[in-house]
Amino acid sequence: MNNLNKKLYLWILIIFSIAVYLIIATFFPVSENNTLFEYLKFIPIIVTLDSLLIFLFVKYFWKFKYFYNKLVPFPDLNGTWKGKIKSTWIDTDTGKNLDPIPVILTIKQSFISISCVMRTAEMTSHSFSSDFIIKNEEQILKLVYSYDSNPKETIKERSARHFGTISFNIIINNKKIELDGEYWTARKTTGNVELEFWKKGLISKYPNDAI
User: Fold this and answer.
1) In a domain, 210, yes or no
2) Residues 98 and 157 reside in one and the same domain
3) Overall domain count for the chain
4) Judgement on whether residues 48 and 101 belong to the same structural domain of the protein
5) pLDDT tens digits, one per residue of 40-69
6) Stated pTM of the model
7) In 3D, which of 79, 139, 141 has the Cα closest to residue 114?
8) What are 138-182's pLDDT values in tens digits?
9) Domain around 34
């Protein structure tokens, strides 16, 4: 992730370490010898507690809503999302746009990475590069990723494998999050995708009840 405030995390870790040292020194004061070893003997304990704090924050705490916009610049998007794809492609036979296509998006996110898999009844696409674009002063909060789309074998004659990019605006209203995006592909097709959160789990197959 390119939007993490590493200086802030470093300062928090330094302050935490100093606080731990002072607490330990209060309950376990150094001897009257005041040797260098006496002052350094608490360092292994502090390093252990620092490591534990980092582990817990990176693994669990970053997801807490309280930390969003304070310590964490992006929301937790983990789970399965569902919605519609609206393509701008026009059928040359009918002269009309395609009907909206039901779609699901599964997002696997950690504190330092994020991956996306989009599925319809006919194709599956996997992200190979993804990140947030966050510019608070310009009120911009986006999830952008590039993907490799693989249609099912039965339709590859009319829809070949292709690459593309999708940019989602992350819309947060009253604790409800929606993803409103637009995509463009190497086939020179474009369109919009509108998604809402569906469930926490990640599914590995397009479900019949996703419509």
Assistant:
1) no
2) yes
3) 2
4) no
5) 788 899 999 999 999 999 999 999 999 999
6) 0.88
7) 79
8) 999 999 999 999 998 888 777 788 999 999 999 999 879 999 999
9) 6-67
